[in-house]
């Protein structure tokens, strides 16, 4: 069948988490680099569409194309491994330990950052004709996002930090549902449909994605955005990463593992 039952696809997710722990360092970094680059290019694509059409909804509807491409290629995002690898740890898979899980997260995060920065450099050169012209309209929009999502949160103080954390948490709730979607069907069309839906929600609602932000804020700084590296790290990336971790782990990974792998005994009414 093209659709797998929850107990079937959740087992596949645990298998995937185990496989990521045993993957070599080179392969982990390369796949993570390509994931970060692909997602960043999709952000440029979506923002360009939004600017040209005047509709952020249209840009959001088309943004998931990048997410679908990177997961069909087997690339890894930090948000995804926040969900998958702990499931393998909970299942006590051979060789899956807490230190190895942390190492995997670190390598994937490093690779994602490298890919995102690669596209950030390209984007800056593209939006400014190699630095010889003023930043174009798409670049100006991306720069404005960087300013609003650092200075804006900082001005709200601790409330801004809390909102950031929650937006990061809800982001990875949706993004990890997209990761799950890739395992729901055995057909490419089914995988794409299942991945597409939750990604639209995260992007349109403006939730905070740690890897997307690894692109948005560095390119904003390159183009002269009115915020600092410190503001980006303290008033966006750190709370976003923590929120992504909690959201993917609790709202997706633990829920699916608990209810479809470690299920309670069925009640008997006889």
UniProtKB/TrEMBL annotation:
It is found in: Membrane. The keyword Hydrolase does not apply. One of its GO terms (molecular function) is formate transmembrane transporter activity. It is a multi-pass membrane protein. It holds the Pfam family Form_Nir_trans. One of its GO terms (cellular component) is plasma membrane. The keyword Heme does not apply. Keywords: Membrane, Transmembrane, Transmembrane helix. The chain crosses the membrane at residues 29-51, 57-85, 105-125, 158-184, 196-221, 241-259. InterPro entries: Aquaporin-like (IPR023271), For/NO2_transpt (IPR000292). Its main location: membrane. Belongs to the FNT transporter (TC 1.A.16) family. This is Formate transporter.
């Amino acid at each position: 069948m093209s659709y797998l039952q929850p107990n079937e696809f959740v087992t596949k997710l645990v298998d995937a988490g185990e496989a990521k722990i045993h993957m070599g360092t080179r392969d982990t970094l390369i796949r993570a680099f390509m994931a970060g680059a692909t997602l960043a290019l999709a952000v440029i694509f979506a923002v360009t569409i939004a600017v040209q059409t005047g509709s952020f909804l249209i840009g959001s509807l088309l943004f998931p194309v990048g997410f679908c491409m990177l997961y069909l290629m087997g690339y890894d995002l930090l948000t995804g491994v926040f969900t998958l690898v702990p499931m393998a740890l909970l299942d006590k898979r051979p060789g899956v330990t807490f230190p190895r899980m942390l190492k995997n997260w670190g390598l994937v995060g490093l690779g994602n950052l490298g890919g995102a920065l690669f596209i950030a450099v390209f984007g800056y050169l593209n939006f400014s004709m190699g630095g010889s012209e003023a930043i174009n309209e798409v670049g100006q929009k991306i720069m404005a996002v960087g300013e609003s999502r650092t200075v804006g949160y900082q001005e709200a103080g601790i409330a801004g930090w809390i909102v950031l954390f929650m937006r990061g948490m809800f982001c990875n709730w949706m993004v990890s549902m997209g990761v799950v979607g890739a395992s729901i069907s055995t057909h490419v069309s089914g995988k794409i449909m299942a991945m597409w839906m939750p990604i639209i929600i995260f992007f349109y609602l403006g939730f905070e994605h740690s890897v997307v932000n690894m692109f948005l804020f560095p390119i904003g700084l390159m183009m002269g955005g009115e915020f600092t590296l410190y503001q980006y790290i303290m008033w966006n990336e750190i709370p976003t990463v923590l929120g992504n971790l909690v959201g993917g782990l609790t709202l997706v990974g633990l829920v699916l593992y608990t209810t479809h792998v470690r299920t309670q005994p069925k009640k008997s009414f006889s």
